[in-house]
């Protein structure tokens, strides 16, 4: 499955189960829409199934259907009809339906001779004699207790119905009742809604069907709550015409617009889009040191943004040992001495660590805890999280402590605005398994209820406030008045936390292009290659945003950026085949050290 471009599910819960399995068992990173596998993205699509509405509308007008309607109405004259059709499977909730109907007759004796449940059962996927026996016993019990010689409240049909009779029953029913306990897209509910185009009678629908999330006009129930279902049956039978019409209108409009053709086209379009996107994805090009050196030399106002771990210094088993080399310190010092440069180190480390190892460099800006704390050059530290509610940290620490006790070699690092679980020194196979378990628990039980973001780093798992990320601090720096006239932007990082910086830088470049396009459309049009589409803004957006630019695209990007005299270099450190929003790649931290040393001596 994971070698597919797209995987389609009828319901969101099915997709969620696959994500959990991939996270817990395979240790893969996933989101509700994407599973990361072998540096590729497997897209998850929620594609329900619909029905052929036009065909059903035409069929229900046939004379044979009309004849059967009249016959059924004569047979059940003066009675309210509740209709259900299900397979004889344990998950289809036939017993739950019968229990609820029995309770309804018990709660409301005035309805005992005024309502009939017509239950059609078609053979299931396997023989289930025990279930069939229980269903038969329950029907016999209800009919003997609440029926008479002249009338039985439950009419049970154990066979396939011919299509005309099935449509006729759905047209004249006063209530549709579906009580499945586990199901995908229940097409019977959709067919009932279409057949009720004229009468607009209500539908009771189990919350465990795949259609429950889409059909908002239905009365949703938990089939295991027998008393509630019984009360809802009564409420639907006495529902006024205005409410019936409103509920049916909502349901019918959805079913009409989201028919089988709509969902088929949606899935095909999703597959085509995903395949096209993935076919365009190539290795991120290695950074052209000659190009960046020339750009640096010719620029007059520069902003240089650097991650710490994995970028300026290699990842180490003991985080406290990840200290910058003398070469790195010297290069950063030289960069900061150049008045044309604004140099920042933006890290997930706390302010104390950054102060200790980089605080002596004059003119260097520092950002700790992913932007939660900043120290502008020649100023004191400033907190950006004072107004945030950090009470969630206690709950997260308890969870991390639980996994630390069970994972030898792991430890918890508590910062002011974030908390991290490290497992670099643990047995990697077992630690990865524990990390997946912890991550899955946090995503399912914590992330949706607290204002936090969960990040999977290199041999660590971090929880931080949603409002705090590296992209926010980069945005602040780019919008700062001190960076007006910026003509050189360099951003380097190595992991998922740095993608926020790359995205912010890309969006900043795109905003400049759009601004220049609006101000000088003729100038920009003259620079566009002949092969570009008529939608110039769209063309520029694609070229600038694509991290895997061809040489022609790079030349074009350079020309576009020069409209505002800005050269932007976003660099991911490490594997060049992994997906990133960066334009360029360097293999190791040593390449970054060599680069900043070369730039510091290049002016």
UniProtKB/TrEMBL annotation:
A GO term from the CC aspect: cytosol
Database matches in InterPro entries: Glyco_trans_20, HAD-like_sf, HAD-SF_hydro_IIB, HAD_sf, Trehalose_PPase
Gene Ontology BP, a term: trehalose biosynthetic process
Pfam families in the cross-refs: Glyco_transf_20 (PF00982), Trehalose_PPase (PF02358)
Annotated GO MF terms: alpha,alpha-trehalose-phosphate synthase (UDP-forming) activity; trehalose-phosphatase activity
NCBIfam families registered for this protein in UniProt: HAD-SF-IIB, T6PP
Recorded family membership: In the C-terminal section; belongs to the trehalose phosphatase family. In the N-terminal section; belongs to the glycosyltransferase 20 family.
Protein name: Trehalose-phosphatase
Organism encoding this protein: Smittium culicis
Biological classification of the source: Eukaryota, Fungi, Fungi incertae sedis, Zoopagomycota, Kickxellomycotina
């Amino acid at each position: 499955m994971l070698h597919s471009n797209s995987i389609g599910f009828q319901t969101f819960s099915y997709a969620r189960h696959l994500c959990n399995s991939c996270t817990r068992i395979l240790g893969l990173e996933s989101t509700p829409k994407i599973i990361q596998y072998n540096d590729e993205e497997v897209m998850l699509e929620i594609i329900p199934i619909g029905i052929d509405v036009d065909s059903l509308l035409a069929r229900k007008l046939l004379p044979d259907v009309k004849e059967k309607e009249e016959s059924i109405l004569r047979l059940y004259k003066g009675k309210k009809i509740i209709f259900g059709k299900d397979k004889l499977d344990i998950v289809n909730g036939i017993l739950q339906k019968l229990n609820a109907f029995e309770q309804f007759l018990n709660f409301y004796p005035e309805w005992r001779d005024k309502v009939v449940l017509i239950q059609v059962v078609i053979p299931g996927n396997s023989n289930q004699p025990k279930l069939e026996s229980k269903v038969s016993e329950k029907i016999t019990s209800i009919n003997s207790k609440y029926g008479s010689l002249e009338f039985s409240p439950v009419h049970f049909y154990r066979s396939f119905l011919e299509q005309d009779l099935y449509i006729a029953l759905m047209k004249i029913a006063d209530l549709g009742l579906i009580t499945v306990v586990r199901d995908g897209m229940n097409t019977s509910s959709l067919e009932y809604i279409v057949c009720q185009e004229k009468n607009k009678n209500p539908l009771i629908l189990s919350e465990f069907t795949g259609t429950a999330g889409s059909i908002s006009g239905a009365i949703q129930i938990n089939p295991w709550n027998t008393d509630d279902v019984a009360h809802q049956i009564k409420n639907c039978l006495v529902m006024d015409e205005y409410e019936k019409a409103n509920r049916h209108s909502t349901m019918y409009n959805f079913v009409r617009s989201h028919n089988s053709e709509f969902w088929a086209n949606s899935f095909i379009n999703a597959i085509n889009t995903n395949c096209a996107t993935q076919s365009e994805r190539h290795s991120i090009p290695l950074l052209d040191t000659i190009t960046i050196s020339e750009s640096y030399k010719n620029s007059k106002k520069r902003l240089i943004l650097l991650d710490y771990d994995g970028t300026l210094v290699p990842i180490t088993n003991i985080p406290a040992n990840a200290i910058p080399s003398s070469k790195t310190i010297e290069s950063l010092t030289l960069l900061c001495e150049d008045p044309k440069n604004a140099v920042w180190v933006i890290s997930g480390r706390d302010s104390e660590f950054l102060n200790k190892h980089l605080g002596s460099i004059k003119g260097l800006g520092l950002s700790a805890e992913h932007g939660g704390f900043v120290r502008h050059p020649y100023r004191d530290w400033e907190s950006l999280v004072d107004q945030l509610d950090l009470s969630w940290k206690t709950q997260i620490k308890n969870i991390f402590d639980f996994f630390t006790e069970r994972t030898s070699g792991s430890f918890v690092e508590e910062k002011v605005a974030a908390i991290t679980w490290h497992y670099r020194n643990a047995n990697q196979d077992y630690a990865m398994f524990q990390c997946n378990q912890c991550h899955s628990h946090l995503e399912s039980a914590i992330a949706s209820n607290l204002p936090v973001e969960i990040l999977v780093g290199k041999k660590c798992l971090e929880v931080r406030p949603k409002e705090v990320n590296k992209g926010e601090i980069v945005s602040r720096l780019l919008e700062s008045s001190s960076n007006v006239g910026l003509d050189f932007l360099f951003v380097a990082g190595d992991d998922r936390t740095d993608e926020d910086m790359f995205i912010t830088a890309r969006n900043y470049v795109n905003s400049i292009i759009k601004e220049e396009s609006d101000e000088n459309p003729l100038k920009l049009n003259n620079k566009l290659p002949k092969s570009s589409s008529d939608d110039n803004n769209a063309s520029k957006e694609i070229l600038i945003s694509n991290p895997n630019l061809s040489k022609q695209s790079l030349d074009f990007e350079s020309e576009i950026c020069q409209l505002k005299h800005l050269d932007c270099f976003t660099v991911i450190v490490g594997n060049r085949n992994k997906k990133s929003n960066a334009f360029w790649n360097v293999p190791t931290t040593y390449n970054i050290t060599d680069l900043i040393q070369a730039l510091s001596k290049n002016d």
